[in-house]
Amino acid sequence: MSGSLASQLAALPPEERQRIGASLSEPERQALAYLWEFWARPEQLPPSGDWTTWLILAGRGFGKSRTGAEWVRAEVESGRRGRLALVARTASDVRDVLVEGEAGVLAISPPWNRPLYEPSKRRLTWPNGATATTYSADEPDLLRGPAHDGALCDEIASWRFAEAAWANLMFGLRLGPDPRVVAATTPRPTAFLKRLIADPHTHVTRGRTLDNAGNLAPTFLQEVVGRYQGTRLGRQELDGRLLEDAQGALWKREVIEAGRVAVAPELTRVVVALDPSGSAGEHSDACGIIVAGVAADRQGYVLDDRTAVLSPAAWGALAVQLYQTYQADRIVAEGNFGGDMVETVLRSVRDASDRPIGASVPFTKLTASRGKAARAEPVSALYEQGRVHHVGAFPELEDELCSWEPNSGQRSPNRLDALVWALTELMLENGAAIGEGWYAYVRHELGLPDPEPAEGTAT
Length: 459
Prior knowledge:
alpha/beta, 2 domains, eight-stranded mixed sheet, seven-stranded mixed sheet, 15 strands, 37% helix, disordered C terminus
């Protein structure tokens, strides 16, 4: 069955399609099952015209992965592409999403034209000789040198080293008469993504989670879409909208971008900071977990964000693991709520041999007499002064920093809270005792204006 006939069938009313489908032979029905033109929504089909990058900006569950994998398959089967690159944030993301995922290349390929996947070689090979090599955007140098005539890139807004990985990929797109890239992502307002959207050679397709509602689990639609639809997070993650910084946010993306580095220098101190959840169970808040350090020149470096919804035993074990991995000096946590509980959890951590590895970990309980907005302001001022650097990108953390408005009534996010505790301990001396006098001193030293009337202690 030809693609044009499949497109004509797809345009018919459902009852007519069912009638015609029932009249097809078994081989015809099998062929129809693998005709993407029949099943795809119009926005999932490649755009016409002269473009180098097809950028799919859409909410979660839109069908971005399937769209990209089907583009790869069509290009290979038509002979238009013979040397492709498959790129995702990490090596496991490439394997689990682009290659072996439920909408990955292997799953959507018909049995008679399925590529051979050789994980050890990071390569797929089709019967016609075309190949696709997998790459991790976390290792940009792997893309330095290899040449391709096409590429599929997944969740580019979450790449830690997006600029370097994308540049190396572009330099390698030098085979064939018309090298092209399909890049799919849930949007985040990063400088890299904004530049890509503005590129005249980029065709942008936008979409929402609900565009694909017929193929999504009812529980997902009820629990996730129902909970977040209409919120700022929902507008980004579900509606696929590129949101700018909140007007009253203490952090600005251009400031974070200006201070971003690929590698941290030698650090004199490193801490793991915790902002434990105040609730437990399936719907509990996340435990903020941030690793940060400071160099001899008093420049701060954010090294890792491992915030997650975890049980106390799990986040305690993770904190001790990060303490060991980063050779940290201590673990710090908020003491106003659950400080003693945090220390108890950490002290109870044991390794696989049942040794009490958490018992000797240095721990500091941080306390504050002012609300979270007042605590965050001196830390955001350090960013403004160019004294804090993110080592790579931390999209979720940066989204929280640039969307939280202190005077809006929002609760401060857990990542932000943990970051504030970490940098306060590292860069604002005597950070463990943050009282009115200390805030006055910090404001004077950083040139901050006098505070607005107190809004009360945030929760």
